[in-house]
């Protein structure tokens, strides 16, 4: 595939690759059906391996339309209820301009500047520093931020985070990732059914005799291997979708805000502080930063903050301040309490006194009529 030049060319290239990956996920669904059919053939029939494979293939052809319809129904249900499920798990609640004027105005200004429809704005009451975009269509799109993020990020940094999530919506990343998670859920569901059948069903493999000996065991080994391969590839594909898109969303935030340093400092503040309490892995994959780490880099859902910052420094001209320490959760409140409890006669900052009403000689000056901006001082 030819190299992509420029942000919008990269967006189109990324979308084509994402569609290809999602088609690959549908292929994995059929692979899982074939593996399940092979297990069923092994349990029900005493036959050599080649006959078991042929029987499983015939069953796959018969079951493929059913598997396709079932997967589409699964996607349709997720299309209707995915946002409600996300809100229920995270405890997010929608806010208006009256509830969060600062946050609402920042997002609205970004949308107006690019002619983008305004997504819903939601807040999670959580001390973690994170944000994510969700939804499958224009009516559902929303951007959710935590109260911890609003506490520790200034306006410029918050605007950069909103720009990052808005870019995910503009690029179709949110829809692609949700669909990938849905189909991966189908694969996980089928895999669990097959493994329950294998290890909890108490079945006996019909191995037969003579030249048929061992055919059933080999078929079961093939089926288990295909299921494991399908599950592993679905996980890798989901993570690959996430990793590529984070770099592009960071670049999109800089394009919207014209402030690479704000995006960099936001990432540094969020780094390692984004774990949402009670959130599932699917939700964490949608977040700005996912601190969960898997097996080396293969299972990392997001690129490291260091690599994202390095890209912003190299290609956007930003400046990296390095890791940023934040005050402890109760430190700011303790400072406020100390100020409130200070004695009334405590030392106060020096303020200059009022200037004299008259300048020059010590003789009293006659009163003058007030000018257009109030009383004048002296003659």
Characterize the structure shown.
With 379 residues, the protein is mostly helical. The protein has helices at residues 7-44, 49-90, 101-114, 147-152, 155-170, 173-200, 215-257, 260-270, 281-286, 305-316, 331-341, and strands spanning 93-94, 120-124, 131-134, 142-146. It has a domain at 7-91 and 172-316. The protein is built from eleven helices and four strands; from the N terminus they run ααβαβββαααααααα. A four-stranded mixed β-sheet has the order 1-2-4-3, sandwiched between helices. Helix 7 crosses helix 10. The longest helix has 43 residues, at 215-257. Residues 1-5, 332-342 and 344-379 have low confidence and may be disordered.
Describe the SSE topology.
Blueprint: H1 7-44, H2 49-90, E1 93-94, H3 101-114, E2 120-124, E3 131-134, E4 142-146, H4 147-152, H5 155-170, H6 173-200, H7 215-257, H8 260-270, H9 281-286, H10 305-316, H11 331-341
Parallel strand pairs: 2-4
Antiparallel strand pairs: 1-2, 3-4
Write a brief caption for the model.
This protein has 379 residues and is mainly alpha-helical.
User: How many alpha or pi helices?
Assistant: 11
> Span between N and C termini?
81 Å
- The counted number of beta strands is 4
**Gross morphology:** elongated
Which secondary-structure class do the elements indicate? mainly alpha
Series of secondary-structure elements, N-terminal to C-terminal: HHEHEEEHHHHHHHH
List descriptors.
single chain; 379 residues; mainly alpha; four-stranded mixed sheet; 11 helices; 4 strands; 60% helix; elongated; disordered C terminus
